[in-house]
Amino acid sequence: MRRSPSFTELPRYPVTAGTAMLAIGITIAWWAKMDFSSLFESAMIRRGELWRLVTCIFPDLNIWHLAFNVYWLWVLGTLIEQVYGHLRTVALILLFAIGSSAFEFAFSSGGVGLSGVGYGLFRLLWILSKRDERFRDAIDERTIQLFVVWFFICIFTTVTKTVPVANIAHGAGAALGVLTGFALTLPRLRLSILAAIGTILLFGLWAATFGRPRVNLSASGGYQEAKWGFWACR
Question: 11, 19, 50, 222: which one has the fewest Cβ atoms less than 10 Å from its Cβ?
Fold first, then answer.
């Protein structure tokens, strides 16, 4: 696997570095009891506050999760930013953030952290490493095994109620990463794949807003909807 840049090279990767620093700063401030309620996913998404689908990636629950997410954001994000530039990296992070957060909130209780973005970048680079010479050494077998095993460990800890994890965000981010990878490397199918990505995003946005009462699978989904409806009428 290609060696990631040292932290002395932060200025060369403003998008990746900026995203990581926002996550660290907001998480520490949240742990210090500062009010960041406007960043989290809630019924306010249904009232037009769609930015919450992006801002919810910045707070994190604990130091280990934060360290894991920031580390892999740096390792994977700098590879993308080095080749595709700053603006495209912003677009990719937004795509994976919105897509993974929308599906997590639509079908579960919503989540926090960069892991959906991380899985999006991982799967994108997995495809690019096989189809684009510029990324030939971007991902190695050990990294692939780590992400795959971790994906199933997270499902296990959620099912057993040991540690709840945003598994839907992981899966949605990974799926969007694969599709984006093929869109970038299969010019003849690009329009069709982009249409599929757009359809998935539109469905996710509908499901996270007006469609949530119909599709939510979490045990507390009905209670949440009733509580939000009560407060909306007050």
Answer: 11
**47 located within any domain:** yes
Count structural domains, the chain.
1
103-162 per-position pLDDT tens digit? 999 999 889 999 999 999 999 999 999 999 999 999 999 999 999 999 999 999 988 888
Angle subtended at Cα 141 by Cα 138 and Cα 144, rounded to the nearest 5 degrees: 80
Whole-prediction pTM value? 0.93
CATH code for position 101: 1.20.1540.10
Number of other residues whose CB lies within 10 A of the CB of residue 110: 23
Cβ-based neighbours of 165, under 8 Å, separated by 6 or more: 111, 115, 154, 155, 157, 158
How many residues in the chain? 234
Flag whether 90 is in a domain: yes
Distance CA 210, CA 213 (A): 7
Structural domain includes residue 224: no
**Domain range for 81:** 14-217
Query: Which of 158-162, 166-170, 171-175, 229-233 is predicted with the least confidence, judged by mean pLDDT?
Result: 229-233
Examine residue 7 and state whether it is found in any structural domain, yes or no: no
